[in-house]
Amino acid sequence: MRKIIFLLMLAAPALLGQTGQRQAGLEGKNPQKIASEFMASSSVIAPDDLSSVYLAKQYTTAHNGVTHLVYKQRFQGFDVFNAAWIAAEMPAVNGHATAAGLAKLYGALANGGKLGSTQLISAEGIERMRKPLSTRPDLMLGARTWAAGVVLNAEGNYGPNPKVFGHSGWGGSFGCADVERGIGIGYVHNQMGPDVTGDPRGVNLCRVIATCAG
Question: What is the pTM of this model?
């Protein structure tokens, strides 16, 4: 019998795990082949994601002969780091998305809640979601008009339409939906801004999009 340890550091799907499997009949079998078969048979790793996984490190501990295989993942040519942070579910803290992903989600909310052939939320649900619930100043964010988990555009950060709703992230990233224009916007950046809300890059972007949309 031989023990192989796999350390999987993946983000799409988000997964950080370590598994030690002791199986019979592995003598003489290539450790990488064992790992590949294990990942291919896993129910939590999508087949399309296997092509982005690569062997980052392999070593054998001398005292017990255990072979260690460390696999990582690349996304669009870049190594995925901080997999544990990405995989953790921490509300209001560590949401991860691309600009295209945010725009796609908010685009669905701006167009009746349908994403392709899937109805994510009803049009009635969207209207309830953007109904004002609180206008009390936020102790950290200042003046805010909160709806059901989203911020309404009372301050004009998402363009001229006060009915636009969305949410901003610390440093300038944001996503928002303009139901009246049928537009969803997603913005992420590679440099943190100093503003908690109202980052001028996002404010200007929304104004330009609203002008182009008419």
Answer: 0.64
